[in-house]
Amino acid sequence: MKKQYFINANIVDPHNSINELGGLIINEEGKIEAIGKKVNINNLPTREKPIDLKEKYIFPGIVDMRVFVGEPGYEYKENFRTLSNAALSGGVTSVVTMPNTNPIIDNVSIVDFLKRRGRDKSMINIFPCASLTKNIEGTNMTEFGLLQKKGIIAFTDGIRTIQNTQLMSRIMNSAKDLGSLIMQHAEDLDLSKNGMINSGIIATKLGLSGIPDIAERIIIERDLTLLENIKCRYHISQISSEKSIEVIKQRKEKVKFTCGVSVNNLSLNENDIGDFRTFLKLSPPLRREEDRISLVNALKDEIIDVIVSDHKPEDEESKRLTFAQAATGASGIETLLSLSLELYHNGSVKLETIIKALTSNPAKILKINKGNLSIGADADLCIVDINKPWIVKKEKLISKSKNTSIEDKKLQGKVTNTFVKGKELFKL
Amino acid sequence: MASKTNKAIKISQKHLLGIQDLSINDVNLILDESQSFIKLNQSKNKKLDVLRGKTQINLFFEPSTRTQSSFELAGKRLGADVMSMNINNSAIKKGETLIDTAMTLNAMHPDIIVIRHQDSGACNLLSQKVNCAVLNAGDGRREHPTQALLDALTIINRKKKIEGLKIAICGDILHSRVARSNIYLLNMLGAEVNIIAPTNLMPKDIEKFGVNTFTDMKKGLKDCDIVMMLRLQNERMTSSFLSSNREYYEYYGLTPDKLDHAKSDALIMHPGPMNRGIEIDTNLADDINKSVIKEQVELGVAVRMACLKIFCD
Known about the structure:
The structure holds two protein chains of two kinds.
Chain A: E1 4-13, E2 18-26, E3 32-36, E4 51-52, E5 57-60, E6 62-67, H1 80-89, E7 92-97, H2 108-121, E8 125-130, H3 144-149, E9 154-155, H4 165-178, E10 181-184, E11 197-198, H5 201-206, E12 210-211, H6 214-229, E13 233-236, H7 242-251, E14 258-262, H8 263-267, H9 289-300, E15 306-308, H10 316-319, H11 336-345, H12 351-358, H13 360-366, E16 381-391, E17 410-420, E18 423-427
Helix pairs in contact in A: 4-6, 6-7
Chain B: H1 24-42, E1 55-60, H2 66-77, E2 81-86, H3 98-106, E3 112-117, H4 122-129, E4 133-139, H5 145-159, E5 166-170, H6 177-188, E6 192-196, E7 212-214, H7 217-221, E8 226-229, H8 245-252, H9 256-259, E9 267-269, H10 282-286, H11 293-312
Parallel strand pairs in B: 1-2, 1-3, 3-4, 5-6, 5-8, 6-7, 8-9
């Protein structure tokens, strides 16, 4: 690989507190050799022709902590190759994959298959999760230790909560012993039973069963209470309501934990469901505008640590149904960054905070050396034309499934190039 | 048969999916048209040829006696060719999706499809996929517009008007599409609506629809002109909403002593089918001085004739 020189870029690397106009050098091994304002036209070897980025932005490659891939079992929805291409087009270079495949990722033998497929078919870094319980049934826990040794990064039942409190405390004990990261989908199963959208006037009007916001809060309160005694690595996958933020604010001083939010919940609310738009059937559900605003504020105040795409590809057939029958989830990995940038453009959150929640914070939680532009680190990064306007069009999406929650939305800011380990794998 | 004044006014909607989509003009148009069919239905020769050559398909995914037969009769009396699909013997049982069924039926060029479905919004989905008009005969717990229209017609025929009346809707509001459609319509027509239900059967934020809510039936019935009882929808109850039918009857069943709190000339309505002894005292249900339940069924045919005629145009 030839050395690559970039100059005149706005570099934002929250991990190293860099936010300045400067340059970046990628060495022959695809690692970062130099970065910052000292890298400029005046102190580069004269024989080298640097690429002038004309004040475009360089961010560390995005680390998306919540991604569903169809392999194995649902290859028709998304496979590692299509996921990888979609991710690259959105500046995402590392993904944490959910175990909700068919079969469920719950035993050692399937992890080898997964790692091999991920390595052979995708060009991005794949960090697979295994389930917390066998077949996500919420009864018997999986082998955290053995699975971890095989390369499992974290444990979660993905779309299901650990409802049984005793089991949850035992899971936490094991996680503590083995140093495992557990990620809870916080939603009381009994309170949310049959629920499809936020409980409230929209649900009443549409005649759909609701999911109350307290279903989320109750699980968070329970888990954080357990966490007071069992200090393990605990992460709440996604929060969706003002009520949950209140609890998180109170408890953050007492116990150590982290939480994420889906970009969908940061930018949409329950009114967007309109006339039964099944693409907006999400979990957690879109809630009131008041909830959305408090999520944005919590991100701004760094009470929320991570933004995820909650990328859940679903084929047309799973969505062309009545709302009750339609699958839950939206495809979103390729629009994660651009949609998050909306919060920067409208002045609600600082750019650095957004990038932190997309790169260094998830990497820190996962304990991986990603999401930063440190010297010597893999050159995983994206170049972004931050003001470029574009419109989300279903047919232009790269992901195998086209179930975007933001069809026809006007966005500002587009990834123009993505690099993984110094290799340019996407170019607009 | 239609009154001449209506000729100029057209319905604003292509489909009848719910009362919430209708304007007051639309409602008046349907109610006026219905009036003309009441007499026809009481006469000896009930057949017209307004819809001759038109095809009506009834697509009922949920069991129904009165709504399905009412729509079938309405179509036949207007001269339409009516086909009622039996879901139990159809491709839906073989796993065909609603959209595919819709496409198949659409290819047969119907002029109107009447649909009842257990999922809220099913009629909306269907209406996006077919070329003809879609009439909602009940979708999940969302809307049942023709029921509300026939209820309004029944009230108007007995009380001459709806504006200013105090109307109580009592029972399983949570699972009831009839309640939702009636709330929209009665509010639109200027009634004051009281909703009476135990909190477990009260939908969230229902008061934002502009109704008064009561958990005490006697208070809710106070000075009401109309008492509309709803059926306890046991088939939609997935977990314990109530302790027992016996207790429900004690607190929310319509009995003579509870009815005493309403006005002395209050009328009792029920969309049927009734659970006698659970939500309503059996003698009250049959009391010809108070109960207009049979009249509701009779006027239902007229309302559905009006809807078929108007939306087939």
